[in-house]
Amino acid sequence: WRTVVWREGSADFLSSRFARVRVSVGHNKLIPETLRPEWLLVEWPENETDPTKYWLATLPETIGFRPLVDLAKLRWR
Q1: How many CB atoms lie within 10 A of CB 41?
Q2: 46-77 b/e (C-beta count within 10 Å ≥ 16 → b)
Q3: What are phi and psi of 2, to 5 degrees?
Q4: What is the chain's pLDDT, residue by residue, as a tens digit (77 residues)?
């Protein structure tokens, strides 16, 4: 788990613990040649007993840890 600060909030910086791992999602398991590794990003805030959020991303294997978190935590407007 790595603690990442992704932006400044109204009162303080927003941060949480994250882990990432490359996975192959099973929804295409009937056609093995379509399996492509994806990023699984997991957020586990320090004040929680279990991880709270999960994201799958088809971003390149070379993406850095922080940019992956930044993209996951973008605000929808």
Answers
A1: 21
A2: eeeeeeeeebeeeeeeeeeeeebbeebbeeee
A3: -125, 135
A4: 999 998 777 778 889 999 999 998 876 666 766 678 899 999 999 999 999 999 999 999 999 999 999 999 987 76
Order of all β-strands in the sheet with 37-43 = 2-8, 13-24, 37-43, 53-57
DSSP letters, the chain, are -EEEEEEE-SSSEEEEEEEEEEEE-GGGTTSGGG--EEEEEEE--TT-SS--EEEEE---TT--HHHHHHHHTPPP-
Q: pTM here? A: 0.83
Q: How many residues does the chain have?
A: 77
Q: How far apart are CA 38 and CA 64, in angstroms?
A: 14
